[in-house]
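Hi U.,

Before I forget, here's the chain from the pilot set. I'm dumping it here mostly so it's searchable later in email.
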Amino acid sequence: MTAPLASAPGTPVPASAAHPAPAPFPRPAPAEFDAVLTRGAFMPLTQFGVIDATGDDAATFLHSQLTNDTQHLDAANARLAGYCSAKGRLLASFLTWRTGETIRLLVSKEIQPAVQKRLSMFVLRAKAKLVDASADLAVVGLAGDVRPALSHVFDAIPDGVHVKVDGPAGSLIHVPDAAGRLRYLWIGPKADVEARLPLLEGKLARVSPAVWDWLDIRAGEPRITQPVVEQFVPQMINFDVLGGVNFRKGCYPGQEVVARSQYRGTIKRRTSLANVAGELANVAAGAELFHSDDPGQPCGMVVNAASAPEGGVDMLVEIKLAALEAGSVHLGAADGPALTFLPLPYSLPTEV
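Structure:
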């Protein structure tokens, strides 16, 4: 039996009960959004942590624990991956890549300690070690017209999504575009990154990490944070569509549940992009959604939320597909603020 992250084994705590009063998230200044949308910007991403997996069996061990293939992860690419409970519910989401003999896992900083501890419990006799590398590494996001500035730091700029290049200052990964703008993650030794940031500051605006949260939402890429731990199987947050699940790899915790959902046509919930108007304190990950025709029970949940440049809050919301067919969806209660749904930047499969 696997150890729990935040609840008794196999007993997810409803996010609304575990987090009754979500803290408001920061609202970037309009000029910060404008810098990304009209020019280019960079932002130190303090909301992430990094776990380094080292040792002869590191790739094999992670392959047995995560939803994606780490045994065949090469030096030129990064991959999304999830970490599930025995019931197939996501405990964490990662971006994974290889740096030399080390496999790195980028994860939400607030859940990193618990996730790292839980993974480490199952290393057992494998020649693998998991280390918190967050203090030694800097994570920087770049968005917009940033390639000319990056050319002063890296000799080559990756073109394809999740393509990675390495240089003296670390790794540069092309992540999915958002709002029609290019995006990159730069992860490297803190001293080396900080020594080179002045090369960017004269050419790009420095903006808040919260802008990256909004860009991730507009890219349609959900992130597991503490309020939604153990709430979703990977397909509920579109991880199968985003390449975060390999259905041909061997077993991992929850694999049977994830595979059964995929092949038996039981995926009745997906993640959509939405906006809610106004400055609302209860818009946060874990907040419940209600349908106008069924006020007695929630029809979905907020996965991620961030202030939007046009006003209000943009959200990725996990929701029953049937709830999108008619009526309206509301935040917190059936008479709460109504959601306006927006198109995702990718297509979802037609469920049977």
